[in-house]
Design brief:
Blueprint (H helix, E strand, L loop, with lengths): L1 E8 L2 H6 L6 E10 L11 E12 L2 E13 L2 H14 L6 H8 L6
Antiparallel strand pairs: 1-2, 2-3, 3-4
Length: 107
């Protein structure tokens, strides 16, 4: 199950500096894998998903990526989501950034 954490549009000035002249939205989700889905565990495991939507004229491009089973500590996931949103992390960079920020949470 996924729950929406937050979203934001990348600032127009930042995009234009990179030669991009259309809006880009980033959305961040917390994924929850419950013990019903993991019979060997007695606790839930949390992951993170990032969705990037590019509003290119006459074309909408959506890219997403999910990193599952990061931690059983929901507070750590909430903290990671806050950092990812603040840093405007895209799906392509998601796993690498999580490894850099919290290497002990990845298996």
């Amino acid at each position: 199950m996924k729950t929406f954490y937050g979203g934001k549009f990348i600032a127009k000035s930042k995009l234009e500096k990179e030669g991009i002249f259309y809006p880009i939205k980033l959305e961040y989700y917390k994924s929850i894998e419950t013990k019903e889905n993991r019979p060997s565990d007695n606790y839930a495991r949390f992951g993170i998903s990032v969705v990037k939507t590019e509003y290119i004229p006459d074309n909408i491009k959506i890219v997403s990526r999910e990193v599952k089973d990061i931690s059983a500590d929901e507070r750590k996931i909430e903290n990671l989501l806050s950092i990812l949103k603040e840093m405007e992390v895209t799906p392509i960079a998601l796993e690498e950034i999580i490894k850099d920020l919290q290497p002990e949470y990845l298996r």
